[in-house]
Amino acid sequence: MNHEPLVSIIVPSYNHEKFIGDAIESLLNQTYKKFEIIVVDDGSDDESLKIIKKFEDKNNFFYSSQTNQGICRTLNRAIREFSKGEYISLIASDDIWHLSKLEFQLKEIIKNPLSEFCYSQAIKFSQDKKIVRGPIIPSNPSEGKILDKVFIRQHVPAGTILFSRKIYDDLDGFDETLLEEDWDFIIRCASKTEFSVVKKPLLFYRQHKNNIMKERSRKKIFQEKRKILKKNRKLVKPHIFLFSISIHFLYDMFLYRIISFFKKS
Predict the structure, then answer these.
(1) Do residues 130 and 232 lie in contact, with contact meaning Cβ atoms separated by under 8 Å?
(2) What percent of the chain has pLDDT over 70?
(3) How far apart are CA 264 and CA 21, in angstroms?
(4) How many CB atoms lie within 10 A of CB 204?
(5) Using one digit for the tens of pLDDT, what is the confidence trace for 90-135?
(6) Residues 23/95, Cβ–Cβ less than 8 Å
(7) 3-class SS at 2?
């Protein structure tokens, strides 16, 4: 790789004292070395901040703490106030990266001059034993111009995304009025740039009882999806909008309950 851009790794932290150390270690040990780590703790009331402070003597490591602001404000603050990278990548404080994540993704995005956004596959693992389980997601990742596909279904694992500072600035960052910040941002990115993809799992997504999506009702999840689709409806043709909002309504209000019932029985 002739050009070695600085990558800002953003870690929004909230009440993950059991996991935040593992997450940071996976970043510090990346094979690509030109990065800065920015951790912003969003008002944790556990021991997260104490664990984060143990890393403060590491090179290119910065942390800040704040009263609870929510994920979107935390991401925007971390990027706008503290980051200096040409590229930005995100990871939740309970997940882990493949040690060559940045190296693989930068090679992929740099070789495509029409791309300012790269993602990869991901795989789930258990809370404590780190046992990989479940399928690789997405099973068949799409690349190039994929606006219609991501408008219909969010199949891009948020913890894998790497994007240019330029596209972040052009889109004015994450929408702080939304809870499903990643899908909205991904849709808007797809309207501006081609997507690059690394077809291997570079994110290990930790499954535990306090995952945010598990704490929300399906009705609330659909309401947030509807906000995003209505906000971005002019980016796609009317039939794409109608198809997307219809299938999400059917899934969240009916099919999810049926699937859950049969899983329990």
Answers:
(1) no
(2) 89
(3) 34
(4) 19
(5) 999 999 999 999 999 999 999 999 999 999 999 988 766 566 667 8
(6) yes
(7) coil
3-state SS, residue 242: helix
193-244 confidence digits (pLDDT tens): 999 999 999 999 987 665 455 556 888 888 999 999 999 999 999 999 999 9
Contact 122, 205 (CB under 8 A): yes
Q: What tens digit of pLDDT does each residue of 55-67 get?
A: 999 989 999 999 9
HSE-up of 96 (CA within 13 Å, CB side)? 21
Instruction: Transcribe 98-136 into DSSP letters.
Output: -TTHHHHHHHHHHT-TTEEEEEEEEEEE-TTT--EEEEE
Going by C-alpha positions, the residue among 14, 135, 32 that lies closest to residue 89 is 32
Q: Name the token pair of 188.
A: 């808007």
Written as six digits, the tokens of 94 are 């309970």
Cβ count near 101 (within 10 Å): 28
Distance CA 69, CA 63 (A): 16
Whole-number Å distance between alpha carbons of 175 and 171: 9
Q: Which residue has the tokens 């703490």?
A: 65
End-to-end CA distance of the chain: 53
Tokens encoding 73: 């404000």
Q: Give the residue among 38, 31, 28, 32 at the shortest CA–CA distance from 4.
A: 32
Place of tokens 């870690």: 11
| Confidence check: pLDDT of 260 > 80 | no
- Mean pLDDT (the chain, rounded): 91
Nearest to 163 by CA among 91, 85, 88, 103: 88
| Beta-carbon count within 10 A of 151 CB | 25
Q: Is the dihedral of CA 51, 26, 143, 222 positive or negative?
A: negative
